[in-house]
Amino acid sequence: MYRQEEPEINLEQILEKLRSFMGSLRGGNGKKGGNAFSYIIIGIFVVVSGLWFASGFYTVQPGEESALRALGRFQTITGPGLHWFWPSPIGTRNVEAVDNVRSLEVGVRGDSPVLAESLMITGDENIVDVQLLIQYNIKPGGAKDFLFRGVDPYVVTLRYVAETALRQVVGSRPIDDVLTDKKEEVQSEAKILIQRLLDEYGTGTVSYTHLTLP
């Protein structure tokens, strides 16, 4: 008659040993087991708390700024170096490279023109096609404004400001100024107006404009 062999690993025995061990830790076999269980819980809590505390250390590299928030409320800006701040979920850190030069196009996306943005009316009611490349970076200490004051500082606010300023400048000059010998004046005037609007909106950015005129 065939006799089924015992398995190499007896799960019932393992589970029974685990139940006995946990019972002893809970104090089922006396005060000593209860104390051991308490020490284990305290030890786990200390280790987890230490790891959570240590995760609050962070480094800000040269050319960067970190905006710190506690429970969603802005606290301060920190510069380069090693710092500590409340870890998540209490604290939040947003690190921005303030030295990085970023680019934004108005009136064109790559090689494709965007006529709704680029076609503008001059002061003598002619239509010109004007494209604008904005290169910008974050002002020193401007990470807070850049991150939290603009609707979308990377795209929406800056593009709106640039297009508004450019239409105002082009609309105040005759077409000859835009097309011929006063292109540099148009560019300089647009740059000044763009920067003034960016400051009024509190975007925390500095712009360097380059116009492409017909």
Question: How is this structure best described in words?
Answer:
The protein is an alpha+beta fold. It contains seven helices and twelve strands. The strands form five sheets. The chain has a three-stranded antiparallel sheet with strand order 3-2-5. It has a three-stranded antiparallel sheet with strand order 6-11-12. The longest helix is centred in the N-terminal third of the chain and has 24 residues, at about 30-55.
Basic shape: elongated
> On the 0-100 scale, what is the average pLDDT?
81
Helix content: 40-55%
CA radius of gyration: 32 Å
The proportion of residues in beta strands is: 25-35%
Largest beta-sheet details? 3 strands, antiparallel
Number of strands: 12
Low-confidence runs of at least 5 consecutive residues: 1-7
Given the helix and strand composition, which structural class is it? alpha+beta
Task: Please provide the ordered H/E string of secondary-structure elements.
Answer: HHEEEEEEEEHEEEHHHHE
Placed side by side, the strands forming the largest sheet appear as 3-2-5
- Number of DSSP helices? 7
Distance between the termini: 100 Å
Provide the fold topology:
Elements: H1 11-25, H2 31-54, E1 57-60, E2 64-70, E3 73-78, E4 81-84, E5 91-97, E6 102-106, E7 108-109, E8 112-113, H3 115-118, E9 119-121, E10 127-129, E11 131-138, H4 143-148, H5 156-171, H6 175-179, H7 183-201, E12 205-212
Antiparallel strand pairs: 1-4, 2-3, 2-5, 6-11, 7-8, 9-10, 11-12
